[in-house]
């Protein structure tokens, strides 16, 4: 019987194989190209920048392993393919709150992809204060049917909070988590209020222009 260490080693090796990762990379590229086109069309239509940032990443084998263990899944590559929705991830940053939901609606209506799940951490933030709209989609890829991609859509203010929290808490483990948890939550609440106020200001300015 293989030891846990041997199982983990096999898993990490398999998750890093290029023939496994290729379809995830292609799916990310396809989604990014689609988002760039959406940005061009919507920016022209709205008369302002719709999307300010598009970035993508492939989850590292180590991060996949940690998530499999955290979720108590069997540590096997096929299980990871089935259970993990964020092996391929795309981050989209918009200026305003309503742009987040407008983009989600556009993706929902797109005939080339299939939205299979939406998790709204904007209206219902995580316990940590994290806010973002997660849209899980199936993306056509060459020779492999469809591949899952998690699209995280957030405002610039939400993204700033998420980057700081990810670096100082998520990546650093338990360091400072309890000490700064209250402060992070207060900042998250303040950020949401700022996003709401900025949206109201934009709407008033648009009305004034009309």
Percent of residues in helices: 55-70%
- Low-pLDDT parts are none
Question: Per the principal axes of the C-alpha atoms, what is the gross shape?
Answer: flat
The SSE string, one letter per element, is HHEHHEHEEEHH
Roughly how many Å is the radius of gyration?
19 Å
Question: Would you tell me the structural class of the helices and strands?
Answer: alpha+beta
Head-to-tail CA distance between termini: 73 Å
| Biggest sheet layout | 5 strands, mixed
Strand segment count: 5
Number of helices: 7
Strand arrangement, major sheet: 1-2-5-4-3
Overall mean pLDDT stands at 93
How large is the share of residues in beta strands?
A: 15-25%
Description:
The chain is of the alpha+beta class and 210 residues long. Helices cover 57% and strands 19% of the residues. It is flat, with a radius of gyration of 19 Å. The model has no long low-confidence stretch (mean pLDDT 93).
